[in-house]
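Narrative progress, year one. The postdoctoral researcher (J.K.) led the effort to move from monomer predictions toward full complexes, under supervision of the PI. The following entry was the first complex the group processed end to end, covering 540 residues in total.
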Amino acid sequence: MKDNLRLLVNPAACTGHGNCAELLPELITLDEWGYPLLPEGGVPAGLSRQARRAARDCPALALMISGEAREEHSEETQKFRRRPA
Amino acid sequence: MSVGYLAAAGTPRVTPPPGLPRLIPADCAAGPEADHGFGQQSLAGHLARLGPLTYPARPGGLIAEAEAAGLTGRGGAAFPVHRKLAAVAGQARERRRAVVVANGAEGEPASGKDAALLWGAPHLVLDGLQLVAQATGATEAFLYSRRGEELSRRLLGALRQRAAAGLDRVQVELVQAPDAFLAGEESALVSWLNGGPARPAFKQPPVWQRGVAGLPTLVQNVETLAHLALIARFGAGWFRAEGTPAEPGTMLVTVHRADGGSYITETGVGTPLAALLPAELGAPGARTAPDASGGIQAVLAGGYHGAWLDPGRAAGLTLSNASLRPAGAFAGAGVLAALPVGRCGLAETARVGRYLALESAGQCGPCFNGLPHIAGALDELAGPRPRRQALADVQRWAGLVAGRGACHHPDGFVRFVRSALSVFRAELDAHGRGRCTATDPAPFLPVPAGAPTGS
């Protein structure tokens, strides 16, 4: 079976914990400020379990597997408060 | 193509404005004093010049006409208007509600064309907003304008005139944008209208699915809406009489001349840059050496997310993405600036870079770490005898921030900075030897005084 998982990070939510690079060092490295550098291509089938775990365990809920977006964690408010002009 | 517009009964048919300009008169100013000669600030003047707004006779008419016209967004991204319209209309059919927003935030300090349009022809923008509201089935409409008490008063007056005349099908609420470079970024705008900070969001789901109040939301630049108001009246064929087949129509531009003056005008897409900066780049076609005749050392195209161009190269380019993209720039929101000799291009880039770093929304690690680091290294490069490492640092950090933000701010910043390192190579060498070729230390490119941090 071909595995087409892709890793995706919400850069506005990522706080640079670095857990993902520890859990998935084969695919994720950190830049000099501690933020993850993701692979260009997809996740090799042999690493899909670890990739899912890295996404699940992201403390900022910023790491995602594409197509499995965690909308429920979006920080954007859905409350509609109007601003007067 | 014809989609069969219904002319309102009993109104005289108005002939389309011949040639240019279409939206606002040439060389207009962005300010309250400017009636711009067209007399369009009042509803009566607007109707006298262009006639009443006509809605498409059949559903989907505006979308088809926008597609036939080849209209793209004039806020900078040049996204095809009909695709956004169709996407929001499709969502609205399912959800029974949608929101449309006229985006006049114009956070780019070097641009004044949206303000000029809102001052000079507010009803053209408001006509366009009604058209897209109808085309998408929107139930709420917003006019998101640059902050300013006098402009707001004027726009509220325009809305009241329309209400009194019973013109509008959807009521429009005026909202003032905060003074921030990113205030007009689509998701930042949506966040602000939702009562949050004007900061870009990670766009998932996109705003055309879930934007203002969680509803499908269409955000269009005010100039784009003004073009739609004319396309609805005079048709796609008329619109295509200007511009190029690939990039039809006209666009408003803000041009900063080498002498320090600036002007706003409307021009066909594909106009030679030399026609917009004749003193600096030589008349189009004339093979003069721009350096000798115009006294400039670079042209900035596309504003502060755009790119510096060598004058010799700029003299052969046109204001279109087809011409500018291969040169690493883009037409964007139509900002051009000619940097005169005697100014330091590196100092200009460092000053604007510092401003852009402060305008980061501060959300994404690579952006809020990388931009200030790059700005600091640019400051060093703008001074005497920078360390070799400073240039290497800028290049490495530029690679680390590009493509890693929730919005395109780091990408645009990097485009601007990298183009400077290429176009101002000779100046970099001079600084390395402890010399600066500038004779005038006064700042050239506009940056707001006491620029806010944007959050």
